[in-house]
Amino acid sequence: MLAVIPYITYKIVRPQLKEIDNVKIATAGLNDLGPISSKEKGLIVVFISALSGWIFSHYLGLNESSVAVIAMAGALLTNVICWNDVLQNKGGWNTLIWYGGIIGLSATLSKEGFFKWLAAFMSEHLDFLGAGNTTIVIIVFLSIVVRYLFASGGAYVAAMVPVFATVGLVTGTAPALLALAILFSNSYGGCITHYGGAAGPIIFAAGYNDIKSWWLTGTIIALLTFLLHMVVGIPWWGFLIQHGIL
């Protein structure tokens, strides 16, 4: 599926430029930049410091957000960037509003018990007893649909994966097969929206896509991957489990 996703995307959202001279563009860009400046050297120092802070945050007694704030403050205080640069970074503000706002909404829903209610509702009303592998098909499809409510894969895994796993196991579905199905659906379920994963808002903020094209392309790719997952993946994993390979 990974091999055909670029082609599918190309057909759905056709690019305006289809042929470019990368060498010419790169050469011209490097010439325009000139030699590395003192600010760029400072940025390298800030970047390495921030990266080290994230790696050793546990030993430093800092969380990842604190390291990011310190790195940003350091870049401003050393004049690596100025406040006008921050204000003019439309992509950054766009990411903050979309990702921060959606995460805030997701956190509020979680705090108010919405996801617990949804989990209880599904456990009580989705009776798949004796349905066999049909259970997996329905659970994976539902796992894709509910991704519209989640702003990150982590929030989805924490709130819904235990629910889907419990509902699936009571039907007698093979645990390994169920676990693989839920695991893989998480990877392509997050592409249906521009806030479904951590990288989504950042890529969306670049301005190359609008919401309609992203959601349309993401939904088509997710559904095609779902069909391939169910038609090829489930039987293949079942074969491996049956023969003791998996």
TrEMBL record:
Keywords: Membrane, Transmembrane, Transmembrane helix. Pfam families: Na_sulph_symp (PF00939). One of its GO terms (molecular function) is transmembrane transporter activity. It is a multi-pass membrane protein. Its main location: membrane. It is found in: Membrane. The chain crosses the membrane at residues 42-60, 67-84, 96-114, 126-150, 156-184, 214-240. It comes from the Bacteria. InterPro entries: CitT-rel, SLC13A/DASS. GO terms for cellular component: membrane. Belongs to the SLC13A/DASS transporter (TC 2.A.47) family. DIT1 subfamily. PANTHER family: DICARBOXYLATE TRANSPORTER 2.1, CHLOROPLASTIC. This is 2-oxoglutarate/malate translocator. It comes from Klebsiella michiganensis. The lineage of its organism: Bacteria, Pseudomonadati, Pseudomonadota, Gammaproteobacteria, Enterobacterales.
